What we know:
The chain is of the alpha/beta class. The chain has 10 helices and 5 strands; from the N terminus they run βαβααααβαβαααβα.
Amino acid sequence: MPDRSITFGVLGGIASGKSLAARLLAGPDGLVLDADRFAREELESPAGRARVLERHGPSALTSAGEVDREALARRAFGDEVERRWLEGWIHPAVRVRIESELSAARARGVACIVLDVPLLLENDAQHHLVAACDALVFVDASREARERRARQSRGWQPGELERREAAQLDLDEKRARADHVLKNEGPREALEEEVRRIRAAHGLA
């Protein structure tokens, strides 16, 4: 085992399987710092709900009175002003959370920490998390496979994945920046074997 925490940063397209890869990379004793989960918790906090209500009124809430995250996402990806407003307060809050939990995990001696941060490369000038990674891992899946997953698991309509990815760094560039590439189109066992290889390369059992 390494004598310090090993930190992986996960890259990849939408619906490529980054969350699954992150969990496998972390292993049973590791930690995944999930930026999407932190963003969701910020949105659903009393302060976040109040911000959304102030800007959009009750129409931004579900019938259960919760923030309609999917409706907000559609607005943000379809309107630059809305996207800047949403990211302007969500991203700083998420950065603080990640920095705090990363520091605490390293202090505890967690063997493996995985940063599951969708805009890890795009926003590095603000959060400087790339330098905190020992290696970047790109999760590779075809557009067809990703569109199918997005349709089945998220109910997205054709073209929605492409529209959202237009606001992100080109996938070829992300792949080129990665230290390792994980293929995620075959059986889970194949992905698990690739993950074991990557972990072993960094001294993790």
